[in-house]
Amino acid sequence: MATFPISREEAAKDFDGLMDRVSNGDEVLIEQNATAIAAMKPAPQHVRLLSESLRMAQERGSTVTLDDEFGRD
Asked: Whole-prediction pTM value?
C-alpha cells in the first residue's frame, strides 16, 4: 500500500480519482497548509453488518430489540 499526499483543493477537484486510488489499496493523505487533516484508506475487508450481529444475538438467546431511539445511539 502506497501513501499519497494531496492538497485539500486537489482532493476536491478529483474525488473520483481519490476513490480509485483508495479502492486499489492506496492511502491518501489530504493536506491543508502542509498539515495532514484527513486520511482516506481502504475499509477493512470484513465489516459485520447489523443484520449479522442481530442474528448472532438471537442465536445466543438474546432478547435485544431496536427501539425508535436506536438511530440516535
From this structure: 0.57
